Amino acid sequence: MTAARYDCSQCPGYCCSYSRISVTSYDIERLARHFSLAPAVARRRFTYHYTAGGVDEWVLRHHKDHVYKSICRFFDRDERRCTVYEARPGVCRKYPYGNRCGYFDFLKFEREQQGDDDFIPSA
Q1: How many domains does the chain have?
Q2: What does each C-alpha distance from 1 to 4, 98, 99 come to in angstroms?
Q3: CA separation (Å) from 61 to 17, 64, 75, 113?
Q4: Predicted confidence (pLDDT) per residue in 72-100, tens digit
Q5: Which of 60, 32, 67 is nearest to 46 (CA)?
Q6: Is 39 among the domain residues?
Q7: Which of 17, 46, 66, 107 is most open to solvent, judged by the fewest CB atoms within 10 Å of its CB?
Q8: Least confident of 8-12, 25-29, 30-34, 116-120
Q9: Residues 6+ apart with CB under 8 A from 78
Q10: Does residue 68 form part of some domain?
Q11: Is residue 71 part of a domain?
């Protein structure tokens, strides 16, 4: 298996800004354990039910962000990192579904072009 060619710690959390981060019952149970909550409480506190166009799923709540319009409620907007990394949902564990992240490639290119290791493209 080829090693990953991206470093999430160098990214401002682009994937965490996806409007629908779908979670399973198992993900909610994992988050509930992480916070020592009942699963029903965790579901109510951390997710909302999304239904539209044949889609029926539980989605993580967001909060406002100064880089992206909004971002996952578990994302630390100052440190630019996941605050529940050990308990993160399965979809986050699998992302970006390969050994490359297109956004990270783009970000690396832009940072090289700008000569700025902290450059973040405007949303």
Answers
A1: 1
A2: 9, 10, 9
A3: 11, 11, 11, 35
A4: 999 999 999 999 999 999 999 988 877 78
A5: 60
A6: yes
A7: 66
A8: 8-12
A9: none
A10: yes
A11: yes
